[in-house]
Amino acid sequence: MGQAVVQGAQAMCSMGTSPGGVKVSSQQTVSAGGATMATIQDAGTLNIGPFGMCTSMTNPAVASATAAAQGVLQPQPCTPVPAGPWGPGKTNIIICGNPCLDSDSQMACSYAGSIKIVSPGQTTVNV
C-alpha cells in the first residue's frame, strides 16, 4: 500500500543527481494531509522539477558535451522530459476522472531514466 502523493512531493530520476519537486495541476479540489492530491496526469514538464544534473547519454546536451570532452562523461543540467503519465496510480481512487498518484507509481523519462516518487509530500494518508 502506497501513500497519496501531494503538492510538494519529491521525485527522483535514475539519471539525475538530486530530487525534483512535484507540482499538482490536474485538479485543485481534493486534498490529503492538508495538500492538494496529485493524479497520474501530473506528469508534464510543468509538473516535474529538474533533477540536478543529467548523466544520460541519450540526452543531447550530455552527449554533445561528452563528445567535446573526448568521451569523458559531462553531466548537464537536467530538464525533465517525462514520457508520462505516471503508472499505475490507484485506479480505485479517481479524482476528476484520473487515478490518484501514489508513492509506488513511476514513469519513464524520454532520456532513458526511470522517475520514481522518493517522498510523497505527506505521511498520514495511505491509499
Task: Provide structural commentary.
The model has no long low-confidence stretch (mean pLDDT 96). This protein is 7% helix and 25% strand. The chain has 1 helix and 10 strands. Strand 3 and strand 4 form a beta hairpin. The protein is elongated and about 50 Å long. With 127 residues, it is mainly β. It has one domain. Strands 2-1-10-9 form a 4-stranded antiparallel β-sheet, with no helix packed on it. Strands 3-4 form a two-stranded antiparallel ribbon. The chain has a two-stranded antiparallel ribbon with strand order 5-6. The termini are close together.
Q: What's the topology here?
A:
Layout: E1 10-13, E2 20-21, E3 31-32, E4 35-36, E5 53-54, H1 60-68, E6 76-77, E7 90-95, E8 98-100, E9 106-108, E10 114-119
Antiparallel strand pairs: 1-2, 1-10, 3-4, 5-6, 7-8, 9-10
Brief description of this entry?
The protein is mostly beta strands. 7% of the residues lie in helices and 25% in strands.
- Mean pLDDT across all residues, rounded? 96
Shape: elongated
First CA to last CA: what distance?
6 Å
Task: Give the biggest sheet.
Answer: 4 strands, antiparallel
The total count of helices amounts to: 1
| Strand neighbour order, sheet with most strands | 2-1-10-9
What is the gyration radius calculated from CA atoms?
A: 16 Å
